[in-house]
Amino acid sequence: MSRALILLLLVASSALAGMPDDPKGVGLYGKLWKPDPIHEYWDPGAYHRPERERVEGTFTGAECVDCHAGATPGIVNDWKASRHATPSAGKAAVACDGCHGTDHQALRFPTPADCGSCHADQHGQMRAERRHGFPSHALAMERAVDARHFVDKPKAEVAACLQCHSVATKCDSCHTRHRFDAAEARRPEACLTCHSGPPHPDDEAFFASAHGKRYLADGQDWDWSKPLRKGNYPVPTCAYCHMAEGKHQVADKAIWKFGLREVNPLSAENQVKRKRWVELCADCHDKDQSAAWLKEMDGERKKSWAMLYRAEDILRKLRSDDLLSPSPKDRPAYPVDWWEKHWPRARIGAVEGQASAFYNVSGIERSHFEMWYFDNLRAYKGAAHGASSLVEEGHKGMGVALEAIAAEAAELRRLGREGRSFDPAPLWKHGPYTDLNRERN
Amino acid sequence: MRALLLFLTLAFPVWAGEVPPGPFTEPECLGCHEGYLAKAHGGCIGCHGDRHGQLPQVRKSQACIACHDGPAARSHQTSKHGVIETLEGRRWDWSKPLAEANQRAPACAYCHRPHGRADKEAVCLDCHSPRFVATVAESAKRSLEIGHLKLEEGRAVGGDPAALEKSFSALSFGLAHHSPDFQWWYGHAALDGDLIRLKAAVTRQRRFRP
Fold this sequence. Notes:
The complex is a heterodimer.
Chain A: H1 2-15, H2 39-42, H3 44-47, H4 61-71, H5 73-80, H6 96-100, H7 112-116, H8 120-128, H9 140-146, H10 148-152, H11 159-165, H12 182-186, H13 189-192, H14 202-208, H15 210-218, H16 238-242, H17 268-281, H18 287-320, H19 339-342, H20 363-385, H21 388-418, H22 425-429, H23 432-440
Chain B: H1 2-15, H2 26-32, H3 45-48, H4 55-59, H5 61-65, H6 71-77, H7 80-88, H8 108-111, H9 120-124, H10 130-157, H11 165-177, H12 180-207
Helix pairs in contact in B: 6-11, 10-11, 10-12, 11-12
């Protein structure tokens, strides 16, 4: 009897994970979703609770190391090589108990606030970044969980989003645990786990630029322990420009931001930001030349938006002529919108919320989404980083997409006049994945 | 006694401290290194070269990427594991075996043991906590199940069954190699796009009046 009880307790205790017993969603639509267990690791501040571990007792840092050198040698190796273990003169060492606590039954999962208890400058900068709004790192997690498609889709599917957006809720995205090496964070590769891929080919844009090519040639030999300051590096890398002088803010100079909307680059606020960019470029470049490059980018953006508006126009005309196929009522509703019950409508463009309308939409709407999110953003990042190859590819892609959209629209008009009648709802409203998505979320 | 003498004679160069310089043919490698099975790679020389002293180089991811240079490599390289190896690998001691966190992040062969199966979840425990490993594995399983549902939906629609393969493969690589980009943009979000295109093609067909 007692062995069965012990076994039951062991199983039960291992099942007592760090999540609260009845975890709830957070954010704008928190009432509508429940987190996947992995969410605890990407937002420990929101979800971690001390868990029942198999090891009991309180331990000093040295005692943690004794055990974990055998249990998790990677962690101990990392820590031993870090400045937490051997700090610079005058500073106290930080061992496991400093961040995780001493009670093995009440272990802390460090959040930015914990790091901020010593690294107050950086933490303060990150918190202050919130006032710059999108696309600040500090707001990234809230941004993720408030996205309608995040709320709507199965949480295991969108667990991928949490990984990158955890830049807001953990401090180890760029200087990884447990080494926490600033030198690692200064290098472009530290950014590219998240800043790569179709809607943000930032890594490709940088490596294709003159700056990037120089980095690829001999960057591995530079002294990355040096601060990100004028004179310390032959060319800038991501953090040199976007976190100048090591300031833990990325949105403070953002003019075009994610690239999904047209902005007025010459507004009063943006004039101030332009000046700051020119001053930063002036670390190495002539100011007039830098200002000219910024203006070139304005031109590229204007060109891209002209094409995007033409695509939006085509779609809006189809919408008002009720020629989209499937029509909004013949496919699942736009997520998390009670209007949809009474007034299902296609969403076109940033203001209408198209960001979450990339699934359960018609073919032509998806084509527009990809033109906007992939081709447009490729050109944008190319222009921003001085990578003309990406600008050309992006513009060419947009041209091809626009032609395809126009052709699709012409066909939809023809089918509207002469096509056979066909009820698309069974095809678009049901399916193994679609049914799961509609029932569970 | 004779067996012992034979063994000592054959093994003499090794236990005398001399390693034959080579170059060697495949059968000659296996003559001494009898127990090794080249799993699916069909040979020693393709990875190890034809003489001794190459082992440290072979442990690096670069050795595998030479052939496996598609989504397998890219999903690893864009993951934090891959980034850490890219940035710091030059300073690691690759003469040490791929085990017990001798290197700070796993290169390809750390998890994919070419000479035999490794328990892929057990190797994670060298650096990560058991609960984290179990949670990540479970979450990945659920994500992959959802990917399978999308494949099923594609098959139910009809049309080209290969249309979703590339994106599903990217999702699998993304989950296995911990690349959020491959899980999402090349994976799930791309699968959504593939499904739309399949359904749009069928819708057009059905509406088309010749």
